[in-house]
Design brief:
The complex is a heterodimer of chains A (594) and B (162).
Chain A: E1 4-9, H1 12-16, H2 19-32, E2 39-44, E3 56-59, E4 63-65, H3 73-82, E5 92-93, E6 100-101, H4 108-111, H5 129-134, H6 139-145, H7 149-159, H8 171-180, E7 187-192, H9 201-208, H10 210-224, E8 228-233, H11 238-253, E9 269-274, H12 284-291, E10 315-319, H13 320-332, H14 334-338, E11 348-355, E12 361-366, H15 371-378, E13 388-393, E14 399-402, H16 412-417, E15 426-431, H17 436-450, H18 456-473, H19 481-495, H20 499-503, H21 506-514, H22 516-524, E16 539-541, H23 551-555, E17 561-562, E18 570-571, H24 581-585, E19 591-593
Parallel strand pairs in A: 1-2, 7-8, 7-10, 8-9, 11-15
Antiparallel strand pairs in A: 1-3, 3-4, 5-6, 11-12, 13-14, 13-15, 16-19, 17-18
Helix pairs in contact in A: 6-10, 6-13, 7-8, 7-10, 9-10, 9-11, 10-13, 17-18, 18-19, 19-21
Chain B: H1 16-23, H2 33-44, H3 49-59, H4 63-72, E1 84-89, H5 92-96, H6 99-110, E2 123-128, E3 140-142, E4 145-147, H7 155-160
Parallel strand pairs in B: 1-2
Antiparallel strand pairs in B: 1-3, 3-4
Helix pairs in contact in B: 1-2, 1-3, 3-4
Classes of the chains: A alpha/beta (594), B alpha+beta (162).
Chain lengths: 594, 162
């Protein structure tokens, strides 16, 4: 019997911070103290708090250690596991009060969350099916196997679950379309081509709780009358792919995938397809083309995939997070689920909270929570005491919302009416140092290079918009640029074939709507208020701070900095090319921009 | 079709057996172009032209079709690549936390541009949309190893490990 369990996070974030080395060191140290049979080590999935990784939790006491390194292990074992003294320096410290917190439930990052789709992430060993089953796993499937297809569909319909991949289409309705189209062969496709820069929730669910997704896929197959599924995963997620393969093999062994599942007569097969790096493949018709081995280009709808999908057969496509919710709804029931969230958006949503907040990571919150609660309570506010400027929601398809929208509830409909969208759930927080024009340019350069080139509005329109934005950030903007951008944006939105083009102008439109003054400052005053656009900056040396150490003169490529040793230096504006090398080199922060 | 019957001009030195072997598991199945290309790239490190032409003949489809697929996806490379692949993340979180300076530094040290390989074939420098380790931004990957919380002055030490 083990006295204690230790969970070490083995998500991608913590692994890159060294959690596997921590695991190895702990194993050796326990051996040294002959405690191997008293302490059980579990390599778990993602805890969401990647920034503080590697994360190390001791049960049953629930002591949350963070940023633990292999060097810390001898002390942790000796002091805590042997003597029982909490190692204070490795506890989480509140960024504002600097008080140490012992239990992870007391950390604000976790206390406001409601983890449904992430219910097992960081709690179980994702490579062990028994742990998933002990936590109620595959009970939803067992229940579904005793139900008629239409009853399953009605259950999902009345739960109010909407697609978590972006557009928020009701999942039950999608299933019903695929169910009503009769065919000998139907497919379920799980879209795990998480391409939005700034979003990694699907990756964490797949890595931390692969069976939750598999169970959802099998239930979907049962509901629409399909016997085969494809899981389309980005090749950039090698760990997720590996864990999925392990999970599928285990489920097969347990008779949960394969012929005659649990003696019901229902047979089902799940294949994994690795994506090859094309953002547009997150669009459903492009994804199907990619599975078929073609160039991943979208095609016009209708016919919808529910009618003519993979290899011309009716196909139901759902996102990872959606399917992880399905297995839970089937187990816990519709009433339980629909009690969470708002009128039009039920349940929870996972957000990847990143950017200039104190706590970055994954958080799952009930629909209807305000942006302020997410950013300031869970996220712990803005870093380095700076001021909040905007939050970008929904990745390259979404929009930037300013401070006036902070008290807005987060759900599908209110985000859309504000010009942003739920998207896949990327949430990037920006402070006063982020230039909104540069941000719009950044997103557009992304969608522009990912545009597949099939339809003209997207291929040419995004290119022209990008040219205008580049001009503005280089200080060559003209007055007509703003109306021109607006006109082009609407044309691209209306005229594009698929979701990529239809939403690509959103970052531009929202920054124009809420931050037009910044565009005007770039165009009319040739000034970047956030101090980001290199060409619009003027570097100068603060004589109060300069010590005359001469470090800057040595890195200046144009010899623009002059001055006597130990006397304040000056920058010749004529010679300066705004490369910023001097500011990077200066140890005294004496080089400023205006 | 037997391997001997396939003739590709001017490439007598190319080892077609290697392609032949890895094609076996895919023949007769549908939708296999992407997985085949992934296998070829795993084997050779890139997609050599003779391998693609050979595949086209074996699958009885035009080589142009394979070329179309190969050039569509960012993952595929038609040129040989370096021993170590650097992927700098250009995702949103990395962008707002200043990955541009990190990228500049890496390119400056290696003296390469995006998508290029160093002369000694030691490094290939690439930029990708998002690695999905946003909590650790700015991030880069070298082969399968992820390096987070980067700053321009950390780049050199990291590169020296390879």
């Amino acid at each position: 019997m083990y006295e204690r369990q230790i969970l070490i996070c083995a998500g991608t974030g913590c692994i890159s911070s060294g959690s596997l080395q921590v695991h190895e060191a702990l194993r050796k140290e326990l051996q040294k103290h002959q405690m191997e049979d008293k302490v059980r080590i579990i390599l778990s999935g993602c805890h969401g708090f990647c920034e503080k990784g590697p994360i190390f939790i001791v049960y049953p006491e629930d002591i949350f250690y963070c940023e633990v390194q292999a060097e810390d292990i001898p002390e942790l074992v000796e002091e805590y596991l042997v003597k029982g003294n909490v190692v204070e320096r490795l506890l989480y410290k509140d960024p504002v009060t600097e008080d140490a917190v012992t239990s992870h439930q007391e950390i604000p990052f976790y206390s406001k969350q409601k983890r449904l789709a992430l219910r097992n992430c960081g709690v179980i060993d994702p490579e062990n099916i028994d742990e998933y089953i002990i936590r109620g796993g595959y009970q939803g499937l067992e229940r579904a196997l005793r139900m008629e297809s239409l009853d399953i569909i009605n259950m999902i319909k009345s739960s109010g679950l909407r697609g978590r991949g972006g557009a928020g289409f009701p999942t039950g309705m999608k299933w019903e379309f695929a169910y009503r189209n009769e065919s000998d062969k139907k497919y379920v496709v799980c879209n795990a081509d998480e391409g939005d820069p700034g979003a990694f929730m699907d990756r964490s669910v797949l890595e931390g709780d692969p069976h939750a997704v598999l169970e959802g896929i099998i239930i979907a197959g049962l509901a629409i009358g399909s016997d085969e599924a494809y899981l389309y995963v980005r090749a950039e997620y090698p760990l997720a792919i590996r864990r999925l393969r392990t999970a599928i093999a285990q489920a097969q062994e347990y008779g949960l995938i394969g012929e005659n599942i649990l003696g019901s007569g229902f047979g089902f097969k799940i294949n994994i397809k690795e994506g090859a790096g094309a953002f547009v493949c997150g669009e459903e018709t492009a994804l199907l083309a990619s599975i078929e081995g073609e160039r991943g280009m979208p095609r016009p709808r209708p016919p919808f995939p529910a009618v003519k999908g993979l290899w011309g057969e009716p196909t139901c496509i759902n996102n990872v997070e959606t399917l992880a919710n399905v297995s839970l709804i089937m187990r816990k029931g519709t009433d339980w689920y629909s009690a969470i969230g708002t009128e039009g958006s039920k349940g929870t949503k996972i957000f990847a909270l990143t950017g200039k907040v104190n706590n970055t990571g994954l958080c799952e919150v009930p629909m209807g929570i305000t942006l302020r609660e997410i950013i300031f309570d869970i996220g712990g506010g803005i870093r380095d005491g700076k001021k909040f400027k905007a939050v970008q929601i929904g990745g390259p398809s979404g929009g930037c919302l300013p401070e006036s929208h902070l008290d807005q509830p987060v759900d599908y409909d209110s985000l859309t009416s504000a010009g942003a969208m739920m998207g896949s759930g990327g949430m990037v927080v920006m402070d006063e140092d982020t230039c909104m024009v540069d941000l719009a340019r950044y997103f557009l350069s992304f969608t522009q290079s990912e545009s597949c080139g099939k339809c003209t509005p997207c291929r040419e329109g995004t290119k022209r918009m990008l040219e205008i934005l580049e001009r503005i950030t280089k200080g060559q903007g003209v007055a007509e640029d703003i109306p021109r951008l607006q006109k082009l944006a609407l044309a691209v939105k209306d005229g594009s074939l698929c979701g990529l083009g239809q939403t690509a102008p959103n970052p531009v439109l929202t920054t124009l709507r809420y931050f037009q003054d910044e565009y005007e400052a770039h165009i009319f005053d040739r000034r970047c208020p956030a101090g980001q656009c290199q060409e619009l900056l003027t570097y100068y040396i603060d004589p109060e701070l300069c010590t005359g150490c001469r470090a800057c003169t040595r890195v200046c490529p144009t010899g623009a900095i002059t001055g006597e040793k130990k006397e304040p230096h000056v920058i010749d504006e004529e010679k300066c090319i705004n490369c910023g090398s001097c500011a990077e080199r200066c140890k005294f922060d004496a080089i400023k921009v205006k | 079709m037997q391997a001997e019957t396939v003739k590709i001009d001017g490439n007598s030195s190319f080892d077609f057996d290697r392609v032949e072997n890895l094609l076996q598991e895919f023949l007769g199945k549908k939708g296999m172009i992407v997985p085949i290309l992934q296998k070829i790239q795993e084997e050779f490190g890139y997609l050599p032209r003779p391998a693609l032409e050979y595949t086209a003949k074996m699958l009885r489809i035009p080589a142009s079709k394979i070329y179309g697929v190969a050039t569509f996806y960012a993952q595929f490379h038609l040129q040989p690549r370096g021993k170590n692949i650097i992927r700098v993340c250009r995702g949103t979180a990395c962008h707002v936390r200043g990955v541009s300076k990190v990228a500049e530094k890496a390119q400056e040290i290696l003296k390469v541009g995006v998508g290029e390989t160093t002369e000694d074939l030691k490094f290939t420098y690439e930029e990708v949309a998002c690695i999905g380790a946003c909590g650790l931004a700015p991030v880069m990957m070298i082969n399968d190893q992820t390096f987070g919380k980067l700053a321009p002055d950390k780049v050199k030490t990291i590169l020296e490990k390879f």
